Amino acid sequence: MLLYLRLLKESFAFAMNALRNNKLRTMLSLLGVTIGIFSIIAVLAAVDSLDRKIKNDLSSLDKNTIYLTSQSFGPTDIPRWKREQFPNVTFDEYQYMKTALKHVENSCFQYFTVNQNITYESITSEAVNMVAVTAEFVDVQRMEFSQGRFFNDAESYSGKQVVVLGYDIAQNLFEGNDPIGKTVRMYGQRFTVIGVTKKKGSSGIDIGGGDDTSAFFPSTFLRRIYGDNNPQVLPVIVIKPEKGTDIDALKGDISQKLRNFRGVKQGDIDNFFINILSGLTDMIDGLLGSLRVGGIIISFFSFLVGGFGIANIMFVSVKERTSLIGIQKSLGAKNKFILLQFLFEAIILCLIGGLIGLVIVWLLAMLLTNVLDFEFVLGLGNIIIGTGLSVFVGLVSGILPAISASKLDPVEAIRSGM
To answer: Which keywords does this chain's UniProt record carry (predicted)?
Structure first.
């Protein structure tokens, strides 16, 4: 054990000596490893951070949450011309489904609609995400508030002109002052602010709003303006199943009841879509997985260049230390000792390059986290992957130079060194 520790110490000394004596050559050789580690770990860290952010944003919703609407959230075999003929879901259908369905914890009616400006005195927030919903939305979405409250059933069904502002919208309009009870203008009319949502941070994905740049108000108000068949709105029935519910059975129940309500003939396809949030998250996971694979494949070529660079510097190192190798062998050093010495040196050089790459990723993550409203995280798992890849590249690129050094004849090595 002591022998291997000594061997490791000597290999580290030789690697440091190579860096000191041939700074430019060694740094150019390490550049490939550094870029390779930086590329792979940067991609993995970015994808992991995005994945973490999306899952955090969707954590307020049950993955089994169902969105019943005329549009599909994912790929579908139904042709576009046929989908365009599907009628929108209506508020009457929502009320019927609310009473007819079993094993449903809660449900709400919502309009996906175009962005609008909101004005308070001389200050305007532009392109605000407008979320027109019934009062049950607060329980379906599990919303939290920094101030005030959500609108109640009476305000919801009467279409009272009240609004709950996202945190960023409230900060922009009221500049830190208390917004509760103040009046803002949107849709050309006055709305009273009754609540402000708790800050969530920028969202990777928001289903039906919920982020800091949204405004929530009764859907009945929007229905009075646009009706149920206006191209500027997409009505949606949001259904949150009870825990432990058989989702496939619930989907079948939803389909049967809505078909009966609409009078869809037997043999005809459903003229609506039952979108499940878990299907969307699976699609997102697949997309993020493809990004990971694509990044790794691209970064592989950097590793290839880095490996060639390390192999080159190790062959040069063997050439420069041929006489020293001969002396070591003549004093009794075994082939295994020489092989491990050069192999450890290659691994240490790659570790140095890899650590530089990891430090660059860490600094970049800190910078972007401070500049952007998004948390980039360099996790322990990615650090271990980066370190492991550095060791692997050092092992592969150093094995041939190490073998050539271990097979040198001591006499010929000393003579050629002289």
So the answer is: Cell membrane, Membrane, Transmembrane, Transmembrane helix
Residue 183's pLDDT band, with cuts at 50, 70 and 90, is very high
237: its two tokens: 């029935």
Q: CA Rg, the chain, in Å?
A: 32
Same domain, 296 and 248: no
| Torsion angle of C-alpha atoms 93, 99, 105, 108, degrees rounded to 10 | 30
Q: Extract the runs of DSSP E, i.e. beta strands, from 102-174.
A: 104-113, 116-120, 123-133, 145-148, 162-165
Question: Of 119, 176, 101, nearest to 146 (Cα)?
Answer: 176
How far lies 291's CA from each of 43, 295, 331, 417, in Å? 8, 6, 54, 51
Own/partner long-range contacts of 329-332 (Cβ < 8 Å, ≥24 apart) = 329/408, 329/410, 329/413, 330/410, 330/411, 330/414
Q: Could you list the residue range(s) of the whole structural domain that residue 256 is in? A: 87-271
Judge contact between 325 and 408, C-beta under 8 A.
yes
369 within 8 A of 375, measured Cβ to Cβ:
yes
pTM reported for the whole predicted model? 0.62
Distance CA 15, CA 4 (A): 16
pLDDT tens, position by position, 345-382: 788 888 888 888 889 888 888 888 887 767 787 878 88
- The residue from 271, 300, 334 where one domain ends is 271
CA distances from 328 to 20, 314, 322, 409 (A): 23, 18, 10, 11
Bridge partners of 321? Answer: none
CA 195, CA 164: separation in Å to the nearest integer? 5
How far apart CA 237 and CA 134 sit, in angstroms, is 10
Task: Give the pLDDT mean for 30-47.
Answer: 81
pLDDT of residue 58: 63
Is residue 21 located within the same domain as residue 95?
no
- Label residue 127 left, alpha or beta by phi (over 0 means left) and psi (-120 to 50 means alpha): left
Q: What is the DSSP string of 299-350?
A: HHHHHHHHHHHHHHHHHHHHHHTHHHHHHHHHTT--HHHHHHHHHHHHHHHH
Instruction: Please count the structural domains in the chain.
Output: 2
Does residue 165 sit in helix, strand or coil? strand
The answer as to whether 67 is a domain residue is no
